[in-house]
Amino acid sequence: MEHIQGKTRTDKYLWAVRLFKTRALAAEACEKGRIRVLDVTVKASRNVKPGEVIVIHRGPWHQHIRVIALSERRMSAALVNGYYEDITPADELERFRLHQATLAAFQLKRGSGRPTKRDRRQMDDFLGDW
Questions:
Q1: 12: left (phi over 0), alpha (psi -120 to 50) or beta
Q2: Which long-range contacts link 17-24 to residues 24+ away (Cβ below 8 Å)?
Q3: Which are the contacts of 95, defined by CB distance < 8 A and separation ≥ 6?
Q4: Which of 35, 37, 44, 83 has the greatest CB tally within 10 Å of its CB?
Q5: pLDDT classification of 83: cutoffs 50, 70, 90
């Protein structure tokens, strides 16, 4: 796989290492202030460098990644390990697991259709501002 020396755009990098499904979604996350580097909200055009820590706001939890190598080309999931290191703190991972368990509690049976208005209200009341 191609390693790039120097720097690459934040949105391209996040897309290339498969943290976002499309580059447009990565750029949108930057625009909405969900991507931070050095505790500063960054634009999609900001260049990232190896060694920097990127914090991605994902709903009720934050994912922390350290940039190891740069690439502007999307790669297979098997190759991603050499490009970033997930350094998310344990408390954030626990918050993620709690969120997943909460969502799993509300999974409807397959084929039962959409949730009713009452079901939706119960889910919203339980989840609060998540």
A1: alpha
A2: 17/71, 17/75, 17/80, 17/83, 17/84, 18/74, 18/75, 18/77, 18/80, 19/56, 19/63, 19/65, 19/84
A3: 60, 61
A4: 35
A5: very high
Task: Name the strand (E) or helix (H) holding 56.
Answer: strand 53-58
Specify the higher pLDDT residue, 127 or 116.
116
Residue with tokens 């990565």: 26
Q: What is residue 37's predicted lDDT score, i.e. its pLDDT? A: 95
Which structure tokens are listed for 46?
């900001």
pTM of the entire predicted model: 0.75
* Confidence label for 3 from pLDDT (cuts 50, 70 and 90): low
Q: Is the dihedral of CA 112, 117, 121, 124 positive or negative?
A: positive
1-88, which class in CATH?
alpha beta
